[in-house]
Design a protein that fits this description.
Subcellular location: Cytoplasm
Shape: globular
Number of strands: 5
Distance between the termini: 49 Å
Domain Thioredoxin: 1-129
Order of helices and strands: HHHEHEHEHEEH
Oligomer: single chain
Region (Disordered): 1-24
Strand order of the largest sheet: 1-3-2-4-5
Pfam family, one: Thioredoxin
Helix content: 40-55%
Strand content: 15-25%
Number of domains: 1
Main location: cytoplasm
CATH topology: Glutaredoxin
């Protein structure tokens, strides 16, 4: 019974485990700085999901994110919990969850606020094509 309680929520659901493994979870500011510095000069599209564990709309977007990971295999997906990284969320002006930032070369190229999966997919398609 102790083992079950120690399994993180995101890995406890076997239907999302495989595709969610492509979503990098950044849990502290040092990891965020390292990730950002490694990707700021790349032309690769990065989608940052600002989320919170208590946020129902954030949880409702998890299956859509898993599908987007499968569809856009050369796009990076990053998840940041706003409660763990309040400074990073504030730096990017995140005021509602979920907020998705689309970045290239370290700069924001677009944003989607709310659980709007169709809009997110459309914006990823647009920026994914504009290489």
């Amino acid at each position: 019974m102790g083992i079950t309680n120690s399994i993180p929520q995101e890995t406890a659901n076997p239907t999302s485990k495989g595709s969610e493994s492509r979503i990098k979870e950044v849990r502290n500011k040092d990891d965020w700085k390292a990730y950002y510095n490694n990707h700021k000069d790349q032309d690769k599209l990065v989608v940052i999901d600002f989320t919170a564990t208590w946020c129902g709309p954030c949880r409702s977007m998890e299956p859509a994110l898993a599908e987007l990971c499968k569809l856009f295999t050369d796009v990076e997906f990053v998840k940041i919990d706003v409660d763990e990284l309040q400074d990073v969320a504030a730096e990017y002006g995140v005021q509602a969850m979920p907020t998705f930032l689309l970045m290239k070369k370290g700069s924001q190229v677009d944003r989607v606020v709310g659980a709007r999966k169709d809009e997110l997919k459309k914006k990823i398609e647009n920026h994914h094509r504009s290489k």
